[in-house]
Specification:
Two copies of one chain form a homodimer. Chain A is mainly α and about 375 residues long. Chain A contains 16 helices and two strands. A two-stranded antiparallel sheet of chain A has the order 1-2. In chain A, β1 and β2 form a beta hairpin. In chain A, α7 runs antiparallel to α8 and α8 crosses α9. The longest helix of chain A has about 30 residues. Chain A is globular and about 60 Å long. The relative contact order of chain A is 0.12. The interface between A and B is large, with 69 and 69 residues.
Chain lengths: ~375, ~375
């Protein structure tokens, strides 16, 4: 077991149990409205049974790094981020028309199949869409419920609240920019990286760390609209690099977030379905505008570009097509370039931990998490 | 001006200003992520410029009835409910494939048109859907942000939080039951009324009143999953009728909610587009499974039932068809029956205020609101 997987595992099992307890209690509320809500409650429980629990891990270590003690309350607050994430995934799968998630049919497909199997009235697709919208909404709302019922003191919650708020506005803004970029045909590496900053780097790493820090009394100053102007509670504001813990979390989180997404981009084309829970070449089939593909386009020969353009967004992409696209992307040198970028960004992230005002245990855990988040197979 | 419209107007103008201030601040956060978020911010501002502000009015008077003072902080907290409502409407319009909202194109249609007008890549419909999902999510999340930034003391917010949580789970559960009932072909009056209880009566009236009461220290006891077991803070639990303020709000809110929805059902078929902001006969075109239609079906002659079945859910329904359906529904006696039910439920609601432990000013305002919410034209 690597230090990274230990740092993840330490949190994951407790997050799993906290989520189970919360979802069990919500099941009671749903069934009180009607027993026919049972399939919805079951699908939510199934969706929440999986996941790497990365955001809770970063929130937890953000808290510990600021000197917060190990306790069940911070696990509850951190676990709430998984509810937000699950809701966002349900909506994301619907927008991307994805068929699978974590090795299971995506939620809208589950309810589409339920409708079709029972010969119900109206369109099965519209029914699946409606249920996915509503259950995603429910999960997003439950984030706040679990966060505020975490058992952390009111003062801590009041400090954390603005970070959670900012994190959510940023992730939905990032997804909007992604949609817009795809529609407007922005194929630049810079455009793809801007989406990654908001949709992944801030959302997955920087803001969860800031949330943990804020709960412990060392959060960023979010007074300006842009953020992060990092600074401890009551500390002086600065645009990162001011020596505060929040600034160190930014300096660690943003490059690590890019490296994390680049690994995802590579797995989305080259990953093993048994590890990723997604069909082979799924990003190509869905026509995702990833950084990997933007780099491949910018480096491709005319013949390689032709192969990429032919298959990108083709819903019928098969194994032969997947192999051709893989060869074109690898041949362009984009995979090697992404691997170099991952290595550079991970080193930059880990270097940002040096001399940052955090506990030694957290520094070690975050260095391990940086490796675990970017050296994974699925 | 009737007492009801005065009670509404008293709150509405201040809620409008609070929402404007909040949305102006969020615009800054969005534009910091990218200037291309401007159309999204504009659409949200446009959507929030309209609306009757019923839920904030009930929340405000729920607070005043419990002895809370008139202050800007309760206006902010009450206004947060409009953000939830706007997000739910954006998602609802998408699920119902509605073209208009408050006299404007619905949000997904706005962005569909934007995509088509610019000749962007991919499907304009999918783009409109994606933007509507994301902006709806954003609005739903902003509910919590505005609520917690309302300026009310931490103790008050902690008391109110579980009511807001319950309200949201109930409204999404109610919408799920609605989808399910439509798909499974449940055409019974009882089935339609169960949906109304969760989707309208609790969400629009009972829970906003409970939220105001809880903020002021007299909320319901939500310990059981079903709720409301009403009771003041620290009071004994009972299933309504225990003499508490929360129980009185339930006894007022549930029948009034049904009357409110029945008025909506009538306006959805017979309303004047200039007043409702929706095309004539829109509920028929969308095939909505309303209580009015369930009653009409249960009373219709064979010929009347044939007319209803022919046009219900017909996207091409024109003025002639609308007139035929109106005649069939009226002829069945369903409109007269709904009007009787509205009258009976409004009287029951107002009677529940008698002797309830609330301020005289609030009792008068709530009696006025009961009339304003059910005697409207749009």
């Amino acid at each position: 077991m690597t230090p990274g997987s230990a740092a993840l595992g330490h949190v994951r099992d407790r997050v799993d149990r906290a989520l189970q307890a919360f979802v069990g209690q919500q099941r009671g509320v749903l069934l009180a409205a009607g027993d026919d809500l049972r399939p919805g409650a079951d699908s939510i429980a199934g969706l929440l049974a999986g996941g790497k629990r990365l955001r809770p891990a970063f929130c937890y270590w953000g808290w510990r790094g600021a000197g917060g003690p190990d306790c069940p309350e911070i696990i509850n607050a951190a676990a709430a981020l998984e509810l937000l994430h699950a809701g966002a995934l349900v909506h994301d799968d619907l927008m991307d028309a994805s068929d699978t998630r974590r090795g299971q049919p995506s939620l809208h497909r589950q309810f589409e199949a339920r409708h079709a199997g029972r010969g119900w009235h109206g369109s099965a697709g519209a029914f699946g869409m409606g249920v996915a919208i509503l259950l995603g909404d429910l999960l997003i709302c439950w984030t706040d419920e679990m966060f505020h019922a975490s058992g952390l003191p009111g003062d801590a919650l009041r400090r954390g609240r603005p970070v959670l708020d900012r994190m959510r506005t940023e992730v939905f803004a990032g997804q909007y920019l992604d949609l817009l970029g795809q529609a407007a045909g922005d194929e630049t590496v810079a455009g793809a990286l801007r989406v990654v900053e908001f949709k992944t780097a801030k959302y997955t790493i920087e803001r969860p760390l800031h949330l943990g820090a804020a709960l412990a009394g060392a959060g960023p100053d979010l007074a300006g609209p842009g953020g992060p102007r990092a600074g401890g509670a009551g500390g002086t504001a600065g645009d990162g690099g001011d020596g505060s813990l929040a600034a160190a979390y930014t300096a660690y989180g943003l490059p690590l977030g890019i490296a994390f997404q680049l690994r995802d981009d590579i797995l989305g084309v080259f990953g093993d379905p048994a590890q990723t829970g997604k069909p082979a070449g799924d990003d190509v089939r869905e026509g995702k505008r990833t950084v990997l593909l933007a780099i491949a386009r910018s480096r491709a020969t005319a013949a390689q570009a032709q192969v990429i353009d032919r298959y990108l967004g083709d819903p019928l992409l098969d194994d032969t097509g997947t192999a051709e696209v893989r060869a074109a992307i690898t041949g362009s040198g984009a995979v090697a370039e992404c691997e170099r970028m991952i290595g550079r960004h991970v080193r930059e992230a880990i270097a940002a931990l040096d001399g940052a005002p955090m506990t030694g245990e957290a520094r070690e855990a975050l260095a391990g998490l940086a490796v675990a988040a970017t050296a994974r197979d699925g």
